[in-house]
Each structure stands twice: as structure tokens, then as C-alpha cells.
Write a structure and sequence with these properties.
Elements: H1 8-11, E1 20-23, H2 33-41, E2 47-50, H3 61-66, E3 70-75, H4 82-89, E4 94-97, H5 100-112, E5 116-119, H6 126-129, E6 133-136, E7 142-145, E8 151-156, E9 159-167, E10 171-182, E11 187-188, H7 197-203, E12 204-215, E13 234-237, H8 240-244
Parallel strand pairs: 1-2, 1-10, 2-3, 3-4, 10-12, 12-13
Antiparallel strand pairs: 5-9, 6-7, 8-9, 10-11
Helix pairs in contact: 5-7
Length: 261
């Protein structure tokens, strides 16, 4: 039951080229910084990354992107990253854009063992009808586009409408970050860092969590657990320096009241 590993290298043992990796975080909030650096260091490449976004230039998943380690991205938001846009438009990167709520549910469904589900989100758009550019060539021509998806009519609470079939995501690995975790893998996330982290862990065959504070089993009240340890296979305790090393995507400040003119 003790899922603690001694190093980041041990945490990512078995992560191989071409695997599908779900990565928690939203922008730079709650990203598994140490695990991402380890993935960069060990040279893993040709990854299919599932994440809300792909980091920013010079940080998070952006580091792997800059080194050409990512071949495909499934995401809902791709702003704030110029290198991402350059690779996508030049044909170096395949991108499957997915509505944010749908992406979250695809990950959750994978964790629950549900292969597919119907949702009204995206009906009547390229999400359901197909034709969304997934990959360009070097001349800017679309060479891979999204296929049309099955739609079906359902009546819910006496309202009949169309729904589109979406498939669950089953990742090989998940990299997540938690504020607290015990040796059994039970995790607690801090405020907005909860974002996609639990869902990514649920979707993976091997979920690896870097934790800012490691505690013993029983120290976390069961009612406070955000993600049960059954979904987590490895726990990497961070050093105090690693735990406090966090980037801020956009810093906005204003003068203190006692300093205003």
C-alpha cells in the first residue's frame, strides 16, 4: 500500500515514447512542475498530451513543446503560447480542440470505465459535424481534420434535442500535483489547483502525484480527501524548495492603500 517513490526518475519509470499522458493544471496553476522536468530530462518524446492547455512559453508543458517532445495535444484552450501556435500552423503538431466541460467529462468517464457518453455540447458545430483542422502541412493546408460524430435525439425532462457521442479518454500515464497526500495515495488539492488534476489521475493506468506535503495514512480526514488513493499508483514527496517553486502566469498588482497618493 505504500506508494511513495524515492525520486522523480522512479516516479516516471515506464513512461515511454508515444504514450498518452494526461497532465493536470490550468495555465500554470496546479501543474506537476517536477514531473514535467523529469519527463524533459529523460528524453521521452512523441507524446500525446491531454491537458486543459499546453502551458506557456518557457514553463510547464511549454518546455516539452519547445523541445519537440509532443506530437499531439488534446486540449480546450491553447492561448498564451506562441510556440504552440507556430508548431500547429506549420504542421509540426496535431491539435484536437475539445470543449472544456466535454474534456473534463471524457477524462472522468475514462476513470469510471465508461467508454462513451452523449452530450448536447458542440451539436451543430464542427465539434459534431467534423471538419475542424487537426493538422496543417508546411504550406498551411489542412491535411487532417476531425471526423463527423454520431448524434442522437433524446428527450430529457420533456425537452427533445440532439446530443453528440463523445468517447472517453484512457491515458497511459497521468502527472498531477497535490497540496497534501498520504502514503496510500489519497490526495488533497489547494483551491483552484484542484482544476483538472483529479480527472487526469482518474483517466490513467498509472497516475503519478507529486505532493507538497506527505503525511501518514489516517492524518487526512476522509471527508477532506479530493481524490481517493485507488486512482493513484505513485506518490512523489517534494522538497520544501520544490513545493514553493511556483510560477505565476500573469502578475497583476495595485498600490497599497497606504501608498496611494
Amino acid at each position: 500500500m505504500d506508494k511513495v517513490v524515492a525520486s522523480a526518475q522512479d516516479a516516471l519509470a515506464g513512461l515511454a515514447d508515444g504514450m498518452t499522458v494526461a497532465v493536470g493544471g490550468f495555465g500554470l496553476s496546479g501543474i506537476p512542475t517536477v514531473l514535467l522536468h523529469q519527463a524533459l530530462t529523460q528524453g521521452t518524446s512523441e507524446l500525446e498530451v491531454v491537458s486543459n492547455n499546453c502551458g506557456v512559453d518557457g514553463a510547464g508543458l511549454g518546455l516539452l513543446l519547445e523541445q519537440g517532445r509532443i506530437r499531439r495535444v488534446i486540449a480546450s484552450y491553447v492561448g498564451e503560447n506562441k510556440e504552440f501556435a507556430r508548431q500547429y500552423l506549420s504542421g509540426e503538431l496535431e491539435v484536437e480542440l475539445t470543449p472544456q466541460g466535454t474534456l473534463a467529462e471524457k477524462l472522468r468517464a475514462g476513470g469510471a470505465g465508461i467508454p462513451a457518453f452523449f452530450t448536447p455540447t458542440g451539436v451543430g458545430s464542427q465539434v459534431s459535424e467534423g471538419g475542424m483542422p487537426w493538422r496543417y502541412d508546411s504550406d498551411g493546408e489542412v491535411v487532417v481534420e476531425s471526423p463527423a460524430k454520431e448524434t442522437r435525439e433524446f428527450t430529457v425532462r420533456e425537452q427533445t434535442r440532439d446530443y453528440v457521442l463523445e468517447h472517453a479518454i484512457f491515458a497511459d500515464f497521468a502527472l498531477v500535483r497535490a497540496a497534501r497526500g498520504d502514503r496510500h495515495g489519497n490526495l488533497v488539492f489547494n483551491k483552484s489547483a484542484r482544476n483538472f488534476n483529479p480527472l487526469c489521475a482518474m483517466s490513467a493506468q498509472v497516475a503519478v502525484a507529486e505532493v507538497e506535503e506527505l503525511v501518514e495514512p489516517g492524518e487526512i480526514d476522509p471527508d477532506e480527501v479530493h481524490l481517493p488513493g485507488i486512482y493513484v499508483q505513485r506518490v512523489l514527496p517534494l522538497t520544501p524548495e520544490q513545493a514553493t517553486d511556483k510560477d505565476i502566469e500573469k502578475r497583476t498588482t495595485r498600490p497599497r492603500a497606504d501608498q496611494e497618493a
